[in-house]
Amino acid sequence: MPAKQFYLLGEPVSSARNIDVDPKSDLGGLKDLIAAHFAIVEPSGIDFLAQDLHLNEIAEITSADTPIAITIDGNAVRDPPGPKGFPYVGNFFEVYPDHLGNHQRLFEQYGPVIKTTSLGRTTYQTNDPAISAIVFAESDFFTKKINEAHPLYPLKQTAAGVFLGDTDTPEWKVAHKFLPPALGPKAVRHYAPTMQKTVEDSFKVFDDFDEQGEAWNVYQYMLKLGSQAVGKLTLGLDFQHFSNRDAQMHEMVHLIAGVLSLNKKVSSKGDWYGKLPFGDPKRLRDINARVEQIVGETIQQTARGGDEDLPLQDAALKASNMIDYAVRATDNKGEKLPESSLIWALVVATGAGFTTTSSLLSWLIYGLVTYPGMQERLLQELIDNDIDENTVMTADVTDRLDFLDKYIKETQRRHNPSFQPGRTARVDLVLPGGYKIPKDSVILPALHHIHNNPDLWDNPNRFNPDRWDTDEVKGRHKAAYIPFAMGPRMCIGFNFALQEIKVFIPKLIFRYNFTREGNEPIEYDPMFQLIRPNNLYVRAERRTFSWGINERFHKNSVNATRVADRPSKIKSRRYVQYLQPNKTKRLNEKNIEHGNGYTTSHPLKRQSEGDGGTRKCHMFKD
Question: DSSP E strands: which ranges in 199-354?
Fold first, then answer.
């Protein structure tokens, strides 16, 4: 079996390796062999060159008398490109404050894999779905290992298992066995009544704003709403967020929101910054300790739904909350979630349960007041499905709402809140396209930029829920739309989040007509872990209905009779809304067409009553 010399084009010829080539093998088998030797992730992209000639047959390769160059998808191997940067700070000021806009600019300039360095920390990002699918797969090449280059490193908690822990740990294996049943489809159906009661309890606050003619900050109240439901379902706590419109935010919610802000600040400023014994790094450590203390105390105080242990699936359906579930659930060996993992697993379930959902709820309301016709179509779908203020929003009911599902998907595509999912290279490797990624480097599939990539989506800046009915979207790459990431480490709470939203949004839309207050560009906070609309204010005005009945007859009797007295039974009815709302103030037409939902990055500006002398705005007091 002859040995031939192979090297990666782009590397010195002196780096060539002697590899035995079986003359009887096929080209595919040789590519697999070469990929294994050089840690090339996708063998199908390999081609061979000798003296600038392509070698397409095994015989040509075995007869070559010079070292053979390896190309990847027609490219020489190279480091991912990126801006050169400045001394000490690197690319910090080329990325921040508007990291969404600046990363988009870098992808357009440098291609699908980019490299940036911020205050000594190097990060890779991609907007390519094929590469993202490789990165998210737990494999010989990538894993979730939260090292110092990972954006979650300041929050790392091995005991948590999920989200804040590494994959290659016993804690992850245990937590990943116990937590998913509590957040699966069957368990989520069990939670639906609590979700509905939560949103209905909020009505008195939003009604109060309507009666006073006041607008309110969307994110702040969606944070209250999302955390109210999660607090009850995970910790068994009633946060009392809607006891009145000025109700204080529960300490737990304040702390977790603060953690997401501090973590972004600390992780974006280099490894050295996170080690400081003062300032934001110390505050982050102190808050983590306080959160752990609160959850530990809550576990001791929360009432149990029973004393007997239950198998995992039964516990998920019978437990009164996730604390009750975690304490009573047993696997097929009779083992339970270890006490060492209990506190931080519940912290993750609580924090992840409301932070992302509240941001997504905010973008959903943003869509109602920004994109023409959305609110009307969603309301009409509720009416067409005989949904009113008394409807119990079970999963069977929400599953019938096709346009709501498309509206949520399009919002998650255009305005996805998540930004931080990262995976770590296990070895020095070569990605498709010839990009070299060093061992222990972190690469981030950039969800926002994947979802808005013009190579993947037709007119991606246009908000169009109907695109989800097209063959083009139905046949998309599996990683072209990944709002909850993908692979073994994807979000385990996605069923919970989607069901919560599908309960909240119909209830809010049926009761209120939403209009925007102000026409300033929507701002997001670049130093927050999630993307949220900080300065979005809306009016929520109570709807009143009068039914306009299409010409249609009921033929249960010999003589046809008009059924105007039974409009709830007629599928073809259209609502007639008797409201005199203020004219909705939207972004200008250019911004609507190009989807400029967020353009700048500034701290949240508190609005006060009578701002500008023309409108009343309200933000809860803290």
Answer: 214-217, 310-311, 329-330
